[in-house]
Amino acid sequence: MLAFDVFGTSVDWWTGITCQVTGIAAARGIDVDAAALAGAWRDRYLPSMARVRTGERPWTPLDTLHRESLDDVLDELGLADRFAEAVREQLVRCWYRLPAWDDVAGGLDRLRGRYLVVALSNGGFALLTHLAKHAGLRFDAVLSAELARTYKPDPAVYRTAAGLLGVEPARMLLVACHGWDITGAANAGLRTAFLERPGEKGPDHTADRAVDTSADLVVRGVGELAAALGC
Amino acid sequence: MLAFDVFGTSVDWWTGITCQVTGIAAARGIDVDAAALAGAWRDRYLPSMARVRTGERPWTPLDTLHRESLDDVLDELGLADRFAEAVREQLVRCWYRLPAWDDVAGGLDRLRGRYLVVALSNGGFALLTHLAKHAGLRFDAVLSAELARTYKPDPAVYRTAAGLLGVEPARMLLVACHGWDITGAANAGLRTAFLERPGEKGPDHTADRAVDTSADLVVRGVGELAAALGC
């Protein structure tokens, strides 16, 4: 059984957010560095979830965290008065529509011929369901950290997924492009595959690298993963 | 957004269970009326879930209820000593592999072109995921009563599904072939479509009829539903 991370691993959030911010801002005559906004917004992703994961704050859905982080970023960039409430809501919904990397749809179909393949992401259940459909990605099921009411890399997220699917954690392979996700899955007893996405954070930031992780397997695309697994 | 019931509505449990019981019994030289066993087993389905729903017993997964009901049925039919532990486990797993009705796969694909379409069943999450894959049914997501830790027709099941999908219950249409499911969904605020499956319980039992329900819509197949919804 394979569990795919989504943001970065399956879909190109950086291009998706940058392009949508560009379009939304242009339509309203707002001058903004969309790539900078996308990067600063995503920089707040892990810290915002960590506050839930560590118990500093109660369970909070990712859409709410995205909105709070966006508000912070707009304050920081001095853009707060340019982005009205409705535009902010529209921007939060951009995370529901992100393009898949070219290798994913076909690779998933190959893998699904032999394995059960699910999504397992910190995105909310609604977000992931819409995102997979919009990006044309066929998973056998969508699983969200929301079902465990905490966030990866908390072991509860991986174990809740395995429990719902009726398998031992050691029978699941987590596929992800982030070292922290690989480590979290390994701590929960899963097998791991690091999928390299050097462009995940755009041209000006460095993505996580395979050499910094201890995954069971390292691949450069879903097609390569399918081949490695005999599909 | 459309939520499809599964057993009876999307898949033909009666044929699937009867055929698998026949095969498993024949392979072991056990003489059994497979249709009678299938019917008696399913007769225990609603009462077994009602004990969880009413709080008479704590949350219990459907696989466990299926197993307990099977044990009771084999006792009642005087077959207890013919069915060893391993065979009973195999029989419980038969519910993971049931054939779809002919109209479902194509009808779902039509509906998915315009709507988000999910499964919403009393089957466990693992069962439903395997069942949909095996039957070749493409849902946008699988949702199980297990996520609410109770069973339909408890309103919590329908509302948990709507909550996870981020929509008001009134924006969901439940499609089901059972009057109790239609009533439960309506009580939770959903719209409802009764899908007639006159053969759902096999040739010797009467299936639920549209005239006994108060669904918003009555159809005789998923294709007819797709046409009614403009797909």
TrEMBL record, chains A, B:
It holds the Pfam family Hydrolase. Keywords: Hydrolase. Coiled coil: none annotated. InterPro entries: 2-HAD (IPR006328), HAD-like_sf (IPR036412), HAD-SF_hydro_IA (IPR006439), HAD_sf (IPR023214), PGP-like_dom2 (IPR023198), S-2-haloacid_dehalogenase (IPR051540). This is Haloacid dehalogenase type II. Signal peptide: none annotated. Belongs to the HAD-like hydrolase superfamily. S-2-haloalkanoic acid dehalogenase family. CDD domains: HAD_L2-DEX.
